[in-house]
Write a structure and sequence with these properties.
about 270 residues; 9 strands; about 35% helix; binds D-galactaro-1,5-lactone
Length: about 270
């Protein structure tokens, strides 16, 4: 990897990867829809709205690998999700293919499978069960990655990111937290592992309360260094009891509960 593009570089994960990947690859191209901090040595800064294909073509020119964090990072109206996470996503993959990109590391999400119950342990092979329009767009990204891997030979790692941050922030996030250094490790596996064709992993630290079987990540060499458990007592003592039974039962929490109208819950 000579030149690695990070989309959504102005967001929380993007700003963190900008630091942790600094100097790892000769050139980091950092792109966002809004203006971001100016380029330093070994960096190129770009401003692109990914719903504009011509602009995306310029954004990906000369790039070997893409870490795609861009788009909408939570639930939103269908029109907004459509522009950012369906049309924009397609533009990035298709322009990347035409530009000869070899690898795409995709920030997919726990919300692609957020309707699974919390008492189930799920691995990378389960069927998607999105908990929101946002989750559907992340499932779409995994399907698009599969197409571009099978049909065009682009290596794809879909990281179903849990909750990224320096600390776990609530009960649900104790199960899905990922620290900056652990996520960096996964991104690097996605860009550098020689055998990646199409893989799905969970972007979570080694949390004792995890509801994921992340054996696929471990098979690819992931060795997480962090666990949310030392912070569990403090997090739990600060949290009022959850009132919504759907949010409490489902891995996606309030993403699953919002707008919920089903009379009989699926298992
Ligand atoms: C996500 O996918 C979002 O991008 C992030 O903002 C959080 O909401 C996270 O999931 C979560 O589930 O905590």
């Amino acid at each position: 990897m000579h030149r690695v593009l990070i989309t959504g570089a102005g967001g929380g994960i993007g700003r963190s990867l900008r630091e942790t990947l600094r100097g790892v690859y000769p050139v980091l191209r950092l792109s966002d829809r809004v203006a971001i901090a100016p380029a330093r040595d070994g960096e190129e800064v770009d401003q692109t709205d990914i719903s504009d294909m011509a602009a995306v073509e310029r954004m990906v020119a000369g790039v070997d690998g893409i870490v795609h964090l861009g788009g909408i990072s939570g639930e939103n109206s269908w029109e907004t999700i459509l522009q950012g996470n369906i049309i924009g996503l397609y533009n990035v993959f298709e322009a990347g293919r035409r530009a000869g990109v070899q690898r795409i590391v995709m920030a997919t999400s726990n919300h692609a499978v957020g309707f699974y119950r919390r008492d189930r342990t799920i691995d990378h092979t389960v069927m998607v069960r999105p908990d929101s329009r946002y989750g559907v767009s992340k499932a779409f990204s995994e399907a698009l990655g599969s197409l571009y891997s099978d049909k065009h030979g682009i290596g794809f790692l879909g990281i179903r990111i849990g909750n990224f941050g320096t600390h776990p922030i609530d009960k649900r996030r104790l199960s899905i937290w990922v620290s900056p250094r652990d996520l960096t490790q996964l991104v690097r596996i996605g860009l550098e592992h020689p055998d990646i064709r199409y893989e799905i992993v969970y972007g979570v630290s080694d949390n004792r309360r995890s509801w994921y079987d992340n054996s696929n990540a471990y098979r690819l060499g992931y060795k997480p260094e962090d666990d949310s458990e030392p912070e569990a007592a403090q997090v739990l003592s600060a949290e009022p009891p959850g009132a919504d039974p759907i949010a409490e039962a489902r891995q996606g929490g309030t993403f699953a509960a919002d707008d919920y109208t089903a009379k009989t819950p699926r298992d």
